[in-house]
Amino acid sequence: MKIGNREFQVPGTTYVMGILNVTPDSFSDGGKFNNLDSALSHVEKMIAEGAALIDVGGESTRPGAEKITAEEEIDRVVPVIEKIKAEFDVPISLDTYHSKTAKAGIEAGVSMINDIWGLQHDPEMIKVIVESGVVCCLTHNRSETTGSNFINSVFMDLTKCISMAEKSGIVDNRIILDPGIGFGKTYEQNLEIMNSLEKLHMFGYPLMLGASRKSVIGNTLDLPVDERLEGTIATSVIGVMKGCSFIRVHDVKENIRAIRMTEAIRNAGK
């Protein structure tokens, strides 16, 4: 799979996507990187630690977060994207479900759109992705949690997203799937979907896992957001063992080390 100017060997290798939230209110690092200098410094650090991609987000997606307009989102992310593109040789992903923001981001240098609503929020998003030819990450999400047959409902929802993408002209080597940890799921369902990640390979697309510092870790370990590193590393290890190609994290260095060790063990004797 090619993202930007880089070839990613998937399946087989697990790559780390470093999170850059240029927001004042993200759940774990809101306000830390919402000025240009601090954002660029953090990008440099994540690349040095081994991040293969940088995911820029301009709107917090935590439960109860304040919604902003696409124009506000564009004002936050575009200057940062332009500077990253100018100063670093790294593929840039944009975490947005607004087509206007996606279009502006692509024009600024983005190679991937990370849509937490799997193309279902903004009907123009598909057109933007098709016309630009960028990679898209389709995340499982729903407005309300489902009860029985949870895994089957996830499969049905993702089938719908994939069908929309394929029928609209988004080619296979431009699609990544994300099970959507923390989106439209109960605590128990988040654990269940992580324990069932290997079943998502039935779709034939690379998988992205984004569980870093999320509430499923806090609820399991009874820890605040700034003490969830070990729990995040555990999810990354599970992701590698269950064949995820991309892991989206805040703490790049520590997760990279755990991922490489896990890969070495998994691949031993083959």
Q: Please, could you describe this protein's structure?
A:
This protein is an alpha/beta fold. It is 42% helix and 14% strand. The strands form two sheets. The chain has an eight-stranded parallel beta sheet with strand order 8-7-6-5-4-3-10-9. A two-stranded antiparallel ribbon has the order 1-2. α3 (99-108) runs parallel beside α4 (125-132). The chain is globular and about 40 Å long.
Task: List the defining traits of the structure above.
single chain, about 270 residues, alpha/beta, eight-stranded parallel β-sheet, two-stranded antiparallel sheet, about 40% helix
> Beta-strand percentage?
5-15%
The side-by-side strand order for the widest beta sheet comes to: 8-7-6-5-4-3-10-9
Q: What is the overall silhouette?
A: globular
- The helix/strand class is alpha/beta
Low-confidence residue ranges:
none
Instruction: Give me the Rg, rounded.
Output: 17 Å
Biggest sheet statistics? 8 strands, parallel
Number of strands: 10
Task: Please write the string of helix (H) and strand (E) elements.
Answer: EEEHEHEHEHEHEHEHHEH
Task: Compute the separation of the termini in Å.
Answer: 23 Å
- Could you tell me the mean pLDDT? 92
Number of helices: 9
Helix content, binned percent = 40-55%
